Amino acid sequence: MSGRAWAEMMLLSLFWGASFLSVHVALAEIGPLTSVAHRTFWAMLILWAYVAIRRLPLPRDPRIWGAFVVMGLLNNVILFSLMAWGQLHIETGLTAIMNASTAIFGGITAAVFLADERMTLRKAVGVCLGFFGVATAISLSALTQFDIRSLGQMAVLGGAFSYALAGVWARKRLAGLTPQVAAAGMLAGSTIIAVPLAWALEGPITLNLQPQTWVAIGYYAAVATALAYLLYYRVLAMAGSGNLLLVTLLVAPVAIILGALVLGEALPLRAYAGFALLASGLVIHDGRLVKAIQHRMRRA
């Protein structure tokens, strides 16, 4: 990759890594569903303004707009809601580690639903190692002593699985659309669901919030969602989808460091060991490093 691609990928990982801290700050005053409603609504306005300024073509097929709603449900409403609720009960750093399992779930769902994504032996080894890493980070006690903390961890994993399903849905239903339009449409679909859902379950959405809450909302809506989507597609064009896997691995350390510095969080050793195993599984599943090593060995 070019130096510019590396720099923008690092910036993207910082954006997403810091989002866990900002969500934690917002949850001190608003509920998880309300935080999601704010996130999708304000990010939607920003991206549609970008689409309007760029005069990007809009889809006219009603089925595409219906697909936006499903995509918004899977990629934002379920994902963000479960992640936010989980953060009420577990550390931000651990939430980010659990979030890294998205790529593992993505490999499984792609193999099941997409004909061109077969589950090879190498990918299966990577998936198994990744799940072993998740189990290590959670600890077996979470399965034998099921409490609210265990539910928080399960909720985050459920969000990661929903995110993986969203990737399959996008491949099947949203292929060929301009990425920025797809992102804006998805956020519109998310907002249609998130706002009434939050209003019904957590009460009327108020704008009378503390300044630190607005700063947190502004960050995770404008920077970690709207701007991050635009940056994501720039990096995708420069570096390719394979290299973007590195972002998944870089987000967790950013969240862990910010959680320790700002919130005073201290994760158990098993969380770091689990992340190391999960990262190894992602690298094996990706396969490029394995192939590079094999190529060097053959040349030697």
Q: Could you explain the architecture of this structure?
A:
The longest helix has 33 residues, at 211-243. It is built from 13 helices and no strands. The model has no long low-confidence stretch (mean pLDDT 89). Helix 2 packs antiparallel against helix 9, helix 3 packs across helix 9 (179-202) and helix 6 packs antiparallel against helix 12 (269-286). It has helices at 3-26, 32-54, 62-87, 92-99, 102-113, 121-138, 141-144, 148-173, 179-202, 211-243, 245-263, 269-286, 288-299.
Rg from alpha-carbon coordinates = 19 Å
Mean pLDDT: 89
Give the ordered list of helices and strands: HHHHHHHHHHHHH
- What is the number of beta strands? 0
Number of helices: 13
Distance between the termini: 25 Å
Q: How many structural domains in the coordinates? A: 1
Uncertain regions spanning at least 5 consecutive residues: none
- Give the strand content: under 5%
Assembly status: single chain
Shape: globular
What structural class results from the helix and strand content?
mainly alpha
Key words describing this protein structure:
mainly alpha; 82% helix; 300 residues; 13 helices
Could you write a compact summary of the structure shown?
The chain is mainly alpha-helical and 300 residues long. It has helices spanning 3-26, 32-54, 62-87, 92-99, 102-113, 121-138, 141-144, 148-173, 179-202, 211-243, 245-263, 269-286, 288-299.
